[in-house]
Amino acid sequence: MGASQDIVAKFGGTSVATADQLRKVKAIIDADPRRRFVVVSAPGKAHAKDTKVTDLLYLAHQLARQGQALGQVWQTIETRFLSITAELGLNLDLKPALDEARRRIEGGASADYAASRGEAIHGRVAAALLDAEYVDAAEVVFFDRAGRLDPRSYDAIAARLSGPGRYVIPGFYGQSAAGEVKTFSRGGSDVTGSVVARALAGRVAVYENWTDVSGFLMTDPRVVAEAKAINEITYGELRELSYMGANVLHEEAVFPVREKRIPINIRNTNRPADAGTMIVASRDPGHQVVVGIAGTKGFTVIQIEKALMNGEVGFGRRVLDAFERLGISYEHTPTGIDTMSVVVSDKQLVDKDGTSRLEQLLEDLQSAVHPDNVKASPGMALVATVGQGMNHAIGTAARLFTALAKARVNVRMIDQGSSEQNIIVGVEEADLATAIKAIYAEFA
Ligand code: ASP
Questions:
Q1: How many CB atoms are closer than 10 A to CB 70?
Q2: For residue 2, what pLDDT is reported?
Q3: Which of 12, 20, 345, 429 could form a disulfide with 211, with the two C-beta atoms 3.0–4.6 Å apart?
């Protein structure tokens, strides 16, 4: 087997939540000798009412900070790990690692340190189970002073994982510029997997991301029960969909592998025979113009009207300045000859303490551009219809709007974007499900 055929396999929290799940992981790894680089999450939920080990660790840190005993919380964490190792019959004594973590958390270690112990300790379990070498992520994954991934990590990982055997690398954390343990944001083991794959570019054929679903569906199954699976999607298309809230993979996990065009394969640990979704650099759209449809409620349109706006130099900048001064980010800015609209998420229109910033914004816009009229229309939902090259496929927009018209959905806003793979329409929130169903029926 050629060297560029190796596989990075990352297993998420539910995939490693119990001894039974870990047996499935072992079967998957043993089934393909190319799966040499294994990244693991901390034990996630074993059932719907369960608590993730990571959440228990944050709680333990919280208790320690308030000077309270870790008591039951620590007991639960410890039992979780020890019962898994016992059930798997592993020759591994986790007690020293658990005791040290507890001592340091009680001694004032950071929240990041506390949270990272889920992966750090579970990595040892996985390494013992898979007969693999354990590599502490803090030795090879580095953050820079700004808290971003330090590219030095790539060389460090490549050098450390250069042997012929199997390796286990705990996900979610690394080392800060100050030499302390630091985590990615929640769900960050996906990012670790991507960073490891990127570091091994040239040796790695695919980054497998094993989770509890068989990949992405074309749309939300709560809206369209029979939604088809997506077999293949590009990084760019996924970006457009994730922006609208399709949530299987950490948003940042795409970037490290994308530059090296290493595909990500979303797989289901509970259904390993399913092919899952392949995330690739480019695909042949074939007859499938639309790859996915995502919708989200909770947007407000700020409409600004002013006669001869198009001739006024700096108008757009002054409008957007008003948003910037209040720290409000925006989604879209559809414009007409004498109108400019700014679409914002409702979340952006309230302060941290819950007070509305809308009135202030409208006042600021008034004094910034002296419009003929400015108003806010809440209650809008956005629907993104995504597919590479769809803006070039003749008739795509016509099909989309005809489908919406037939379903009697009133389109309040259209934004075709500049990515050429996305048409976004704004509809009344009450029409969101109808709109998604209509578009799905037309293109699926
Ligand atoms: N265990 C961490 C979390 O719950 C990271 C991960 O699982 O990816 O967020």
A1: 19
A2: 45
A3: 12
Task: Say which residue, 442 or 289, is predicted with more confidence.
Answer: 442
| Antiparallel, parallel or unpaired: β 204-211 and 264-268 | parallel
Choose one of 189, 212, 247 to mutate for the ligand 1 pocket test, by most ligand atoms within 8 angstroms of C-beta: 189
Which residue in this structure is represented by tokens 């799940």? 21
Residue 389 has a pLDDT of 75
245: left (phi over 0), alpha (psi -120 to 50) or beta: left
Q: State the distance from the centre of ligand 1 to the C-alpha of 120, rounded, in angstroms.
A: 12
- For the chain, which residues make up each domain, given as ranges? 11-209, 292-443
Q: Is 181 left (phi over 0), alpha (psi -120 to 50) or beta?
A: beta
- CATH 3.30.2130.10 is held by the domain 292-443: yes
Compare 197 and 422 and report the one with higher pLDDT: 197
Among residues 53, 274, 404, the alpha carbon closest in space to that of 423 is found at 404
Q: With left for phi above 0 and alpha for psi between -120 and 50, is residue 406 left, alpha or beta? A: alpha
Fold (CATH) for 11-209? Carbamate kinase (3.40.1160)
Q: Give phi and psi for 302, each to the nearest 5.
A: -100, 115
Q: Match 């259209």 to its residue by tokens.
A: 414
Ligand 1 contact via 13 beta carbon (within 6 Å): yes
**What is the rounded CA–CA span in Å between residue 282 and residue 305?**
41
Tell me the C-alpha distance between 159 and 151, whole Å.
14
Atom of ligand 1 at shortest distance to CA of 13?
Answer: 7
Q: Is the CB of 172 under 6 A from ligand 1?
A: yes
Q: What is the pLDDT of residues 152-188, one digit of tens each?
A: 999 999 999 999 999 999 999 999 999 999 999 999 9
- As to burial, measured by CB atoms within 10 angstroms (0-12 exposed, 13-18 middle, 19+ buried), residue 375 is exposed
Determine whether the shortest distance from the Cβ of 42 to ligand 1 is under 6 A: yes
Nearest protein CA to atom 8 of ligand 1, as residue? 187
CA of 254 to the centre of ligand 1 (A): 17
Asked if the domains at 11-209 and 292-443 fall in one CATH topology, the answer is no
